[in-house]
Amino acid sequence: MSTKTQTVSLEEIEKQNGYMAAVRAGNMAFERELGFKPPVFVLTLGCQQNESDSEKLAGMAEKMGYAVTDKPEDAYLIIVNTCAIREHAEKRALSLVGQYKHIKAKRPELIIAMCGCMVVQEHRAESIKRSYPYVDLLFGTSDIHRFPEFLCEKFKRGRRVLRPCEPEQVVAEDMPVRRESTYRAWVSAMYGCNNFCSYCIVPYVRGRERSRKKEEIVREVSGLVAQGYRDITLLGQNVNSYGKDMGADYDFADLLAELDTIEGDHWLHFMTSHPKDATRKLIDVMAAGTHIAHHFHLPMQSGSDSVLKAMNRRYGFDKYIGIVDYIREKMPDATITSDIIVGFPGETEEDFEATLSALRRARFDMIFSFIYSPRKGTPAAEMEQIPDTVKSERFERLLAVQNEISLASNKLFEGKTLRVLCDGESKNNPEVINGRTEGGKIVFFDGDEGLKGQFLNIEIERGDTFALYGKIKNN
Ligand code: SAH
Ligand code: SF4
Ligand code: F3S
Q1: Among 49, 199, 200, 341, which residue has the most ligand 2 atoms within 8 Å of its CB, making it the best to mutate?
Q2: pLDDT tens for residues 162-202?
Q3: Which CATH number fits domain 181-277: 3.40.50.2300, 3.30.750.210, 3.40.50.300, 2.40.128.50?
Q4: Ligand number, closest to the Cα atom of 206
Q5: Domain 6-170 has what CATH class?
Q6: Atom of ligand 2 nearest to the CA of 196
Q7: Dist. CA 247–CA 433, nearest whole Å
Q8: Ligand 1 centroid from CA 299, angstroms
Q9: In this structure, which CATH number among 2.40.50.140, 3.30.2010.10, 3.30.70.100, 3.40.50.300 belongs to the domain 417-472?
Q10: Same fold: 181-277 with 294-412
């Protein structure tokens, strides 16, 4: 495998266009005969990177003559884009695929494809090959652009096409995209991860870091702003190591500064950042920016230096909190969020208490907390594990401490007016409208669906643990 990032050649993209045309011809015949386009259902498990990949898969499917549906029971093609980050995510994928078997029993033409992070692990690929004979297509995370080829082969030969190969050092451009939203968009800045945190499967299933050319990113972001997108998030497993694989003297802070010059009314977000690459330069660029959201998602994982070391995170708590302090110094209004893992192998009560005091010191607006889940093939899975009961008990204590902090931080907004990007009716309660602040906090208010996609000024009346409540301010 080459360590230098390669852009998938135009020739290869042309080849895929040819496969797309072939599948499309078949689907048009289907449409002529049955009077509708064959429906495709795309299920995404996992992070924003997977969501972004799914938008490309759906884009290709549409170009091949499918119509996207949200009902798997209607589908002629089901794509399950899997995640491997924790056991729960893998179990979910397998149980859902198990359910799709019943749809296929009724409609044997249904093609079931699995892709994404779970299926590139050898043991998972093997078990799907063996125990899930109704899965027709299997392909890896760096082969998304070859989906038309695999599908075409399936149609031509009728056999299963199982190619869950290891991730390669490639970046594909110019693929069709079917974006889920008309005002929030994902833009990949880089793919893969080189960090090998000892608990994490991502470097094994996503491959080494590879950055997109800055011209491509600038072009995509400019296009989105011109189309009226209001919130653009730059994605990467470790987005602030952007550019390192290209050896150019141009880093993530430079990219952000350049993107900030694109004129429009929009927010620029990015995620996720590794503390080791969260430079002062980056924070200065954010503070000086016009569009760059004052939101920093900076996973801490643990507050104990010995656990951080065993996790191979390459920073200690002092270095971490120094970054947090600098963000607050430069941007007192910044929202800072984090990821925490409890129950890492060898975590003592003292280590765990160090995490609790770190939370009290850092005062994150919000955290995403996870119970450690052993991942086959990672070093931490081989370490001595701690009992599940201890893990869950610590998890509850962690939440209790953070909930208090989140509540206090949200109370500070009472009486203030915040700019909110409206997401329309709340999924759980269509009676209320919701939206998000620049820092990603959820805000509920009265209004109507027509406000979706607009920036609004909301006067905050109440701050609760998980959300803010307010009313539209007319001015
Ligand atoms: N690249 C990002 C995070 C990707 S995964 C980063 O480094 O910040 C998102 C979060 O999942 C991680 O921050 C971590 O908190 C959690 N996570 C990763 N592997 C895990 C595991 N094996 N068990 C539990 N949580 C895990
Ligand atoms: Fe996983 Fe660490 Fe890479 Fe994040 S930085 S994806 S936690 S290995
Ligand atoms: Fe999951 Fe892969 Fe994302 S493991 S969290 S979908 S990079």
Answers
A1: 200
A2: 998 889 888 999 899 999 999 999 999 999 999 999 999 99
A3: 3.30.750.210
A4: 3
A5: alpha beta
A6: 8
A7: 46
A8: 8
A9: 2.40.50.140
A10: yes
**What single-letter amino acid sits at 179?**
R
- By 3-state DSSP, what share of the chain in percent is helix, strand and coil, each rounded to 5? 45, 20, 35
Q: pLDDT tens digits for 440-458?
A: 999 999 999 999 999 999 9
- Does pLDDT of 1 surpass 60? no
Please choose from 311, 313, 370 the residue to mutate so as to test ligand 1's pocket, defined by most ligand atoms within 8 A of CB: 370
pLDDT band for position 345 (cuts 50, 70, 90): very high
Closest CA to 45 of 88, 77, 16: 88
Q: Which residues line ligand 1 (CB under 6 A)?
A: 85-86, 199-200, 202, 237-238, 272, 274, 299, 301, 339, 341, 370, 372-373, 375
Please tell me if the CB atom of residue 206 comes closer than 6 angstroms to any atom of ligand 3. Answer: yes
The answer regarding whether domain 294-412 maps to CATH 3.30.750.200 reads yes
Phi, psi of 8 (to 5 degrees): -60, 130
Expressed in angstroms and rounded, the spacing between residue 270 Cα and the centre of ligand 2 is: 16
CB-based burial label for 71 (10 Å; 0-12, 13-18, 19+) = exposed
Quote the percentage of the chain above a pLDDT of 90.
Answer: 94
